[in-house]
User: Which sequence fits this backbone?
């Protein structure tokens, strides 16, 4: 009986020690800890968008900035012009590595942060690194700026770039949290969630967490089928349609 | 209740899509047209990318044409010989159309061409139909008793490669149906329509086919042309959304039941003038969109990211 109690105490001690070592200790070494409520967004058949909670703790005085960037892709922006009364796309510019999704949140004003830092870490829509592809680089800066702003406006309209700076709420100067919402039309892939701890205008600590957005279920299957085996998918679509049409005709006859 | 469309990559309200399918179904039941000319613009309006709208409409029309043709076939209203000749033209036309679609998309002009084609075709057909049906209504009010000839003879009847089409009671050049089939095939690929609204008037006014076999024959060849477009778009652009097509279809099947009942109660000329007004309505809406200053002069191309 005694031996049992002793062994229990030893085990409990070990567990406690292990727990203490694993627990996120906010020391001077680790000024910032943060995590997401979920590391995966599953696009199911009933998907209408998702909201994630980002939370964490900080040690000491400073500002927190959170950025979420979607997979980068090249995007073509087109500009319309009135030709003989109707609006026609007459000019275009292709941007490489434009984020397919972007959101930023901060505890204070982003304007307090050093512009170089903002540009480097892409803090704010105006500081996104949107560079035209090589062949479009000779275009005058004013033109590039107009196309860049056009791209941002379109993405904001589609809900893929968050319009303003989100709020981060801070509890007793230590705990913080913010919500990031994703619309139904998000693209799949690996997203990057970055949390910056900023003191005197420059980051003293940063943490990056990946977030996976993927399709699951029937939708994922249909999408994969359509893209990996296009010919079979085409035949499948036709067969489904013919069967459905035939079935409808059969039902009609009964009625 | 929302459903996520895997190819269009947007989430839509199921009941909205079912309702839209239902409305198209009512139209097809009442007027005997596929309703693709309304479907594609409505899908685009819902936020489905134009490329996906066009390809998916084609897929949905395969189904509605199959169920339509079965009913006409039972009544013996299909001229298979004419259908096959139209089909050969349609096959080449739709293949050329899909290729043209890809080129236009690369140059960023596909939306413009889709809109322009709609305005031109809907405008022309709508006006022609309205003119014809109003005249028919007026004529029926004061009967003259004189029976008109089966069809008018003109230079089109002088073309070579003459063929006899027994069901249609015609002896005409095969080049005519081939040409019509080709043109309508191009339209199917570009606009996501079955092309019945172009095909039917062309068969009546250009070929001089008897009205009874026109709808059945055009439906017969539409099945194959839309199937060809579905296949080629699935292969080349991966823009056929089966989930969207099936949802539309369910609505269309239910809608068509009501449509046929309504259609049976209306007179032919009245039906045609109603359809003409509807066609003109869509045409005017699209024309305004072309001319009105857009919300944003800058737009982004739709494309799917590959994982």
Assistant:
């Amino acid at each position: 009986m005694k031996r049992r109690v002793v062994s229990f105490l030893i085990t409990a001690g070990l567990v406690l020690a292990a727990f203490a070592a694993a627990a996120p200790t906010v020391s001077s070494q680790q000024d910032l800890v943060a995590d997401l409520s979920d590391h995966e967004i599953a696009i199911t058949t009933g998907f209408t968008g998702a909201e994630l909670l980002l939370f964490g703790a900080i040690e000491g005085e400073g500002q927190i900035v959170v950025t979420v960037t979607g997979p980068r892709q090249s995007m073509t922006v087109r500009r319309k012009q009135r030709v003989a009364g109707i609006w026609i796309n007459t000019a275009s510019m292709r941007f490489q590595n434009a984020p397919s999704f972007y959101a930023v949140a901060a505890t204070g004003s982003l304007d307090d942060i050093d512009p170089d830092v903002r540009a480097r870490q892409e803090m704010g829509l105006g500081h996104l690194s949107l560079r035209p592809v090589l062949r479009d680089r000779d275009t005058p800066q004013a033109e590039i700026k107009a196309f860049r702003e056009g791209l941002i406006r379109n993405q904001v309209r589609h809900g893929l770039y968050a319009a303003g700076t989100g709020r981060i709420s801070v509890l007793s100067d230590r705990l913080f949290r913010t919500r990031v919402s994703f619309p139904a039309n998000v693209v799949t892939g690996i997203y990057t969630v970055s949390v910056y701890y900023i003191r005197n205008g420059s980051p003293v600590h940063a943490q990056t967490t990946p977030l996976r957005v993927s399709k699951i279920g029937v939708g994922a299957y249909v999408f994969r089928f359509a893209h990996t085996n296009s010919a079979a998918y085409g035949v499948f679509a036709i067969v489904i349609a013919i069967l459905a049409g035939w079935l409808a005709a059969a039902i009609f006859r009964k009625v | 209740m929302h459903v996520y469309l895997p190819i269009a990559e947007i989430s839509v309200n199921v009941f909205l899509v079912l309702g839209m399918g239902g409305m198209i179904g009512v139209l097809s039941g009442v007027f005997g047209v596929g309703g693709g000319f309304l479907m594609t613009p409505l899908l685009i309006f819902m936020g489905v990318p134009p490329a996906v709208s066009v390809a998916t409409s084609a897929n949905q029309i395969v189904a509605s044409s199959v169920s339509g043709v079965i009913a006409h076939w039972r009544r013996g209203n299909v001229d298979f010989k004419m259908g096959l000749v139209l089909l050969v033209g349609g096959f080449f036309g739709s293949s050329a159309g899909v290729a043209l679609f890809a080129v236009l998309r690369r140059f960023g002009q596909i939306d413009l061409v889709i809109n322009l084609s709609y305005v031109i075709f809907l405008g022309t057909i709508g006006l022609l139909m309205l003119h014809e049906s109003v005249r028919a209504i007026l004529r029926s009010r004061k009967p003259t008793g004189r029976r008109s000839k089966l069809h008018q003879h003109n230079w089109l009847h002088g073309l070579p490669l003459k063929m006899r089409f027994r069901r249609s009671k015609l002896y005409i050049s095969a080049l005519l149906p081939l040409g019509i089939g080709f043109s309508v095939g191009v339209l199917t690929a570009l606009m996501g329509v079955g092309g019945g609204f172009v095909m039917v008037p062309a068969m009546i006014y250009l070929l001089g086919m008897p009205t009874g076999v026109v709808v059945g024959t055009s439906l017969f060849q539409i099945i194959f042309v839309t199937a060809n477009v579905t296949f080629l778009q699935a292969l080349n652009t991966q823009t056929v959304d089966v989930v969207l097509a099936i949802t539309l279809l369910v609505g269309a099947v239910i809608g068509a039941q009501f449509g046929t009942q309504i259609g049976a109660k209306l007179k032919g000329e009245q039906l045609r003038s109603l359809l003409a007004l509807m066609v003109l309505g869509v045409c005017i809406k699209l024309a305004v969109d072309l001319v009105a200053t857009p919300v944003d002069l800058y737009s982004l191309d739709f494309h799917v990211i590959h994982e």
DSSP finds five helices and 13 strands in chain A.
